[in-house]
Amino acid sequence: MTTILAMDFWTSIMPNVVANKDVFIQSTWETIYMTLVSGIIAGILGIIIGIALVVTAPGGILANRTTYWILDKLVNIFRSIPFIILLAVIAPFTRLLVGTSIGTTAALVPLTIGTAPFYARQVQNALVDVDRGIIEAAEAVGASPMQIIFRVYLREALPDLIRTSVVTVISLIGLTAMAGAIGGGGLGNTAISIGYDRFENDITIMAMIIILAIVFIIQILGDLWARKTDHR
Amino acid sequence: MAANAPIIDLKGIDVTFKEADRTVRAVKNVDLEVAKGDIYGIVGYSGAGKSTLVRVINQLQRQTSGKVTVSGQNMGALKGKALRQARTKIGMIFQHFNLMNERTIGDNVMFPLLLGSKLSRHDKQAKVDELLDLVGLSEKKNDYPAQLSGGQKQRVAIARALANDPEILISDEATSALDPKTTSSILDLLKNLNEKLGLTVVLITHEMQAVKSICNKVAVMQSGEIVERGDLLTIFSKPTQQLTREFIETSSQIDAALANVVAQPSIQHLQANERLVVLSYAGASTDDPLIAQLYEQFKVTPNILFGNVEILQNTPVGNLGLVLSGAGDAVDKALAYVKEQGVSVRQINVAEYQAELARKAAEADTNAEGEA
Fold first, then answer.
1. Which of A3, B126, B204, B282 could hold B237 in an S-S bridge, CB 3.0 to 4.6 Å?
2. Which range is least confidently modeled, A58-62, A195-199, B54-58?
3. ipTM of predicted complex
């Protein structure tokens, strides 16, 4: 009885959402899939590039002017390209890599390339904040560069890396909303191509609510984790 | 290595930093020999090159030229793994402790043992417990650095520096961020480790007080050079350089006393037969009734303005500020006699001294502005 009444309530205020329930389930899944996969790949790339930037920078533990200069410029260039243009520009590369330039899987390539440099910069900032004296103390007890990277830099910067990762994932969710442009699907696509284009406002609002919910959950979990690991 | 060879032997060390528009020669042709078991103090104002010089010992700073020998090993020739291995035998502590914030106290001390030590996991734990016990912080093992006071953090840093059983401990301004009471407890700990473990300590500081309480040898650095060096007593009782004297006077508060004295009207208007002097003496001469002799032999009247006696390495070292007055050349004769007794004499021209004080105050202000 109550279920039917509740259903009536939702049908009355969000008729199109109820009618397109399956679309929502699918597009939510697409958003999560794109965020997760490109997040993991971009995360690994970003951490590697971020570490490389810090250790090869002047005064770093493996200072190397040329490597630093090249990485620094690459990161700047890729960060400067607007995502919607990046989608189009790297389409041939995407086709080469995943066999198609259209669809959810195809969207992973530009999402990863769009996110990795941004994350690399964030990782670099987090690692640079590790006190130079702590690095020097590790060198003084005979730590090797690899030991300093894994046992000092990443360990000491962990709370900041978690915070920074949250920011990156949230911005990545924002980017997935544009994946619709190449048939990537996802909640952003649903909001625009169904909600906005067909004047079905309740669909746009519902898509927004789901995205907000995902963002809030990630933010809250991230904050809790960062606080738990932070002993400064 | 010969039995009596110095454990640290620096020969002709030069360190030059190239900056965009200039080169800075931070260390200039420095020789330094530290014997096993020494507590060697290196004193100087900030920017004198002390930190750069000691970093050459463990090669955190490579020398531009010169030779570094530590425990018979030519450090400059070492690279990669061999250098890291050599570094494990040279512990180092720092002004800002440099502990890892995200590791517990126990894990901070454990850190050097995680880098390639052959000890079993159980033995490593036992070593950490032993070290924490040595510095008196066993009950803090599971705390994080943020929960500790400055003195406690430095004790953890000392335990960490000792984890690989080094023969040498370098202390880079390790007490400069601590209050006086904590400073002396840390210095006592270093002295204790020196006696108990035979640890050789190189201690850099800008506070002569620290040197005075534990070092047996001292070098004074200025603009990248060692301007004076020797054993503690000789340096304290017979400093030859102006800078050395400044450090000593600051630490024994002779400078404060003198500044007070020269501000007195009676001192500013000394008679022709009156002389303001500071006598410094060490060891046996403190026992002689010197002041009484001045009057008995030369009819010179000493007016004592200030004085202090300190015990350095079980030897009393004293400073006495006097106004001497006597007829004719009696004062000069008396001072010559005093010098013969092994007491160093410094005559102070009140007007010049005041001008000097004013100049220094102005200089200090300029420096403070520069730093701000």
1. B282
2. A195-199
3. 0.84
